[in-house]
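Posting for a labmate who doesn't have an account.
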Amino acid sequence: MAAPGGLGRCVAAFWLALAFDALGLAVLLAGVFADVFFSDLLIYAGGIGIFLSLIWWVFWYAGNLEVPLEELRDDVGLAPPKGRGDSLLRGLVHGLSLRLSSAFASAPRARAAPADLELQRARGPRDRPASGR
């Protein structure tokens, strides 16, 4: 259901889009008609402002889309699989996953295990190796 007033559910996105449009248009027209040395900057900035308002218009539109509950359940995977094609694909992906994980599990490791490592004492400039006394 749409919100009262006719603006839909995403009223903030609507007003932001409108503000970006108005500000972008004002800056663009100031660049066209004002006699200043940075009119090119104003024209480009106004065009960018109007372009950025498209983001808010898309948010407003997408936020007002209504999807029936049956289609939403089907889309997110809550409905049972439709036929053999779905289970066949799942079986293929599961088999590939098992094959890859067994291949990586049996591959030799590049580093030694922590239990095989031996700690060594660091030698500084004054340290001398211990003599065999």
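Reply:
Got it, the structure tokens are right above this. The mean pLDDT is 79.
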